[in-house]
Design a protein that fits this description.
The chain folds into 2 domains: 128 residues, 2,3-Dihydroxybiphenyl 1,2-Dioxygenase, domain 1; 66 residues, 2,3-Dihydroxybiphenyl 1,2-Dioxygenase, domain 1 (Roll). The longest helix has 13 residues. By secondary structure, the chain is an alpha+beta fold.
Length: 248
C-alpha cells in the first residue's frame, strides 16, 4: 500500500509554551522582548511580532510545570489538514482533528503526537490581523518581527530527519561524521531553516528563533536584559568591557 501524500507545509508557524508565572513571563516576552499581545484571557496570552499578519506566533499558557505544549506548522490548504491526519495515522500516531473555532484564531487543526514524541499541530487558517510595522508607538524591546524557526532536541537525529524529509522538508545543513548524524537544519519557506534537530535528551524543545529587523536590535536587547540584572544571557560578539565597545 502506498504511503499517503504528505500535507503541503508552508512554514513553521507557532509554539505554545506552558509557564509557571504568566505575569513574569509577560514582563519578559512583551515588555522586554517586545511581542505584541493580540489577545488575552485569564491564564493565557496570544502574541505576535510586528511584521506578522497572522493572529499569533506564540502562546503562553499558565500551568504547574514549564513545558512546550505544542509546535505548529501552517499548511497550504484546508485539504492539507486532512492529508496531515492521514499521513500521521499511517505512521501509527495518535491524531485529533480539532474543529474550526475551537482554538482561538484558528480554523481546523490536526493535532498529533508524532513518532518523535512531540505534540505537533498543523492548520491552514489563522485569523488575519494588521501588521504593525509603522506603529512606532507600540514598538519596544527587541522589536520582534516574526517567528523564524523551531529547534528540537532528540535522541535519534536520523529518525527525525527521515520524518521531516517524508513531510517534504528540504535539507540546508548537517553536522555528521563517522556515519552518524548529529544535527540537521531543514526548511519549507525559502530561508535557512524552519526546524532544526540536534542530538540530546528528548523529546524536548531546545529553543525558538525569532527574527528582528537589524543586528542592532540584538545588541539592544542584550543590554536591556543585562541592565535588569539577569544572569541567564549568553552574548556573542557585541559590547564588552567598561567602554561598552562593539565587536561587530
Amino acid at each position: 500500500m502506498q504511503n499517503p501524500q504528505p500535507p503541503d507545509i508552508v512554514r513553521s508557524a507557532c509554539a505554545e509554551l506552558v509557564v509557571t508565572n504568566l505575569a513574569r513571563s509577560r514582563e519578559f516576552w512583551v515588555d522586554l522582548l517586545g511581542f505584541h499581545v493580540t489577545a488575552e484571557e485569564p491564564g493565557q496570552l496570544w502574541l505576535r511580532g510586528y511584521a506578522e499578519s497572522a493572529h499569533h506566533s506564540l502562546i503562553l499558557r499558565e500551568g504547574e510545570r514549564a513545558a512546550c505544549a505544542a509546535i505548529s506548522f501552517r499548511v497550504r490548504t484546508d485539504d492539507d489538514v486532512d492529508r496531515a491526519v492521514a499521513f500521521y495515522v499511517a505512521r501509527g500516531c495518535r491524531v485529533e482533528l480539532i474543529e474550526s473555532g475551537a482554538r482561538r484564531g484558528l480554523g481546523r487543526v490536526a493535532r498529533v503526537r508524532d513518532p518523535l514524541g512531540f505534540s505537533v499541530e498543523l492548520f491552514h487558517h489563522m485569523d488575519p490581523v494588521d501588521r504593525l510595522l509603522m506603529r512606532w508607538d507600540l514598538h519596544r524591546g527587541a522589536e520582534i518581527s516574526r517567528i523564524d524557526h523551531i529547534n528540537i532536541a532528540v535522541p535519534d537525529v536520523q529518525q527525525a530527519y527521515e520524518l521531516y524529509r517524508d513531510l517534504g522538508f528540504g535539507l540546508s545543513e548537517t553536522i555528521e561524521g563517522n556515519d552518524h548524524l548529529y544535527a540537521t537544519w531543514m526548511y519549507r519557506k525559502p530561508t535557512v531553516h524552519d526546524i532544526a534537530m540536534t542530538e540530546g535528551v528528548g523529546p524536548r524543545l531546545h529553543h525558538l528563533g525569532f527574527a528582528v529587523p537589524e543586528s542592532s536590535n540584538i545588541l539592544r536587547t542584550a543590554d536591556l536584559i543585562s541592565a535588569r540584572g539577569e544572569s541567564c544571557i549568553e552574548r556573542g560578539p557585541g559590547r564588552h568591557g567598561v567602554s561598552a565597545a562593539g565587536d561587530l
